[in-house]
Design a protein that fits this description.
With 480 residues, this protein is α+β, with helices and mostly antiparallel strands. It folds into 2 domains: 276 residues, Butyryl-CoA Dehydrogenase, subunit A, domain 2; 182 residues, Butyryl-CoA Dehydrogenase, subunit A, domain 3 (Up-down Bundle). Strands 2-1-10-11-7-6 form a 6-stranded mixed sheet, with no helix packed on it. A 4-stranded mixed sheet has the order 5-8-9-12. Strands 3-4 form a two-stranded antiparallel ribbon. Helix 4 packs antiparallel against helix 8, helix 7 runs antiparallel to helix 8 and helix 7 runs antiparallel to helix 12. It binds iron/sulfur cluster and fe (iii) ion. The site of iron/sulfur cluster (SF4) has 10 residues, from helix 5 and helix 7. The site of fe (iii) ion has 5 residues, from loops.
């Protein structure tokens, strides 16, 4: 298994083509726009070597028997699913942000289970191919990006009905050696600092959409692949200094890109679905549920930091003993632990798939993610309430260091007398960083938008059973 430093060095070996702020980036590894995201992902490698976390972050491969990172593991029990959540919470407590590696982790598990069932039904050999790729990922401790979301164009039209056929990734050519794909993947968390992208379809597909039913593994620096990096709230502050970023080492959220696939060749041994449109829906659903499962892990770890920062702000402001402050902080803990409960529940209630790998309880995973779209906003609202309006009006780090203005800011931004002004400013910037803009939108739309969860909640709700329960008690005879 790699250390964080070895992971960062491995990125230097790649020829990843990245554009940001209208420029081609030549050394992304040391660039202040990207380095915080890289540092956050590196924590998943470093913590695997810390004895305290060994049981959570490392595991024995069911394929080779070797010790591997859990991020490359296929869940062999519901206990594995529970450990995943505990691991995500621990890592998020350290980074205070998204560490990106779970998306590819979920893609691996979704493909493992789906290719098995596809081969059983259709006589294809995708699972065998996939297992070989998985062994390579485990052996080399690679980070993969889960590349599902297509740009989607007109949301009212199917992929094959779009005016521009590239709105969903599709196969444009098949040869004896492999396939050629074209299109783009949007909102790609952590992709610029991954090794591979795991491409999957983004919606259930019909017969007419067969060319869009494609799953495969592509190196992030393969010919024809390039990445256009997305902006985040206050990202330019990273280019200026440290304090104003709030979390200089690890940034805001994952670091997303639009990844363009301009006629990319993929050899057959890296192709795991090609034309089997009837299995696209299963793959999408498996991936979505595995990823929704995570949010009571990582977001709860992030909330642990927000709650700690908010409590510190109350102390620095001299209001920690006020009963309404205590009550609001209690509410923050309640909301956060509710998300954690849901993650543990959907994991503990997971079941075995035909491949032997374990899958989460899909109803509970979707309920969890729906809660996250609300609870994180409420946690952040309470953090703003308690921290105070100055988190939105603070002058810059440069003004605090300026000979003329610095002493005045030092004097007038002080709270309680025994806490240095700088601590109060640093904590305020951390709250600002973790509770606004990009971080909030990620909680809403990451792992799928709220309506996607509501569709699955209703589908999984077993409404006929509920109606039968009611009819029985009401004394109404069974109907057809
Ligand atoms: Fe992992 Fe959470 Fe980031 Fe998704 S949002 S990649 S689950 S840390
Ligand atoms: Fe996410």
């Amino acid at each position: 298994m790699m250390t964080g430093t070895e992971y960062i060095e491995s990125l230097r070996q790649l020829k990843t083509e990245i554009y940001a702020f209208g420029e081609k980036i030549t050394n992304f590894v040391d660039h202040p726009l990207f380095r915080p995201h890289i540092n956050a992902a590196a924590v998943t490698y470093d913590m695997a070597h810390e004895p305290e976390f060994e049981d959570l972050i490392t595991v024995k491969s069911h394929l080779t028997g070797k010790k591997i990172s859990r991020f490359t593991h296929i869940h062999q029990s519901s206990e594995d699913l529970v450990k995943k959540i505990k691991m995500l919470r621990m890592i998020a407590q350290r980074t205070g942000t998204c560490f990106q590696r779970c998306v590819g982790f979920d893609g691996l598990n979704a493909l493992y289970t789906t290719t098995y069932e596809m081969d059983q039904a259709l006589g294809t050999n995708y699972h065998t191919r996939f297992v070989e790729f998985l062994k390579y990922v485990q052996e080399n401790d690679l980070m993969s990006a889960g590349s599902m979301t297509d740009p989607k164009g007109d949301r009212g039209l199917r992929p094959s009905q779009q005016a521009d056929p590239d709105m969903y990734v599709h196969v444009v050519k098949r040869t004896d050696e492999g396939i050629v794909i074209r299109g783009a993947k949007a909102h790609q968390t952590g992709i610029v600092n991954s090794h591979y992208m795991i491409i999957m379809p983004t919606v259930a597909l019909g017969e007419a959409d067969r060319d869009y039913a494609v799953a495969c593994a592509v190196p992030v620096d393969a010919p024809g692949v390039f990445h256009i990096f997305g902006r985040q709230t206050n990202d330019e502050r990273r280019l200026e200094g440290e304090i104003d970023t709030g979390n200089a080492r690890y940034a805001v959220v994952g670091g997303e890109a639009l990844t363009v696939l301009e006629d990319v060749f993929v050899p057959w041994d890296k192709v795991f679905m090609c034309g089997e449109n009837q299995y696209a829906g299963m793959l999408v659903e498996r991936f979505a549920c595995y990823h929704r499962q995570n949010y009571g892990g990582c977001k709860c770890g992030v909330s642990d930091v927000i709650i700690g920062a908010t409590t510190a702000m109350a102390e620095y402001n001299g209001v920690a003993k006020a009963s309404h402050i205590k009550d609001k902080i209690t509410e923050m803990v309640h909301l956060s632990e509710t998300m954690y409960c849901c993650s543990i529940a959907c994991s503990a209630e997971g079941g075995k798939t035909p491949s032997g790998a374990y899958f989460v309880n899909p109803l509970l995973a979707n309920v969890l993610k729906q809660n996250v779209t609300r609870h994180i906003y409420e946690i952040c609202r309470l953090a703003h309430d308690i921290a105070g309006g100055f988190i939105a009006t603070l002058p810059s780090e440069k003004d605090f260091k300026d000979a003329k203005t610095g002493p005045y800011l030092e004097k007038y931004f002080r709270g309680v007398s025994d806490v240095p002004t700088e601590y109060r400013v640093r904590m305020a910037r951390l709250v600002e960083n973790m509770t606004g803009g990009t971080a909030l939108a990620e909680s809403m739309h990451g792992a799928g938008s709220p309506q996607a969860q509501r569709v699955m909640i209703m589908r999984q709700s077993n409404m006929e059973h509920k109606k039968r329960l009611a009819r029985r008690l009401a004394g109404i005879p069974e109907q057809d």
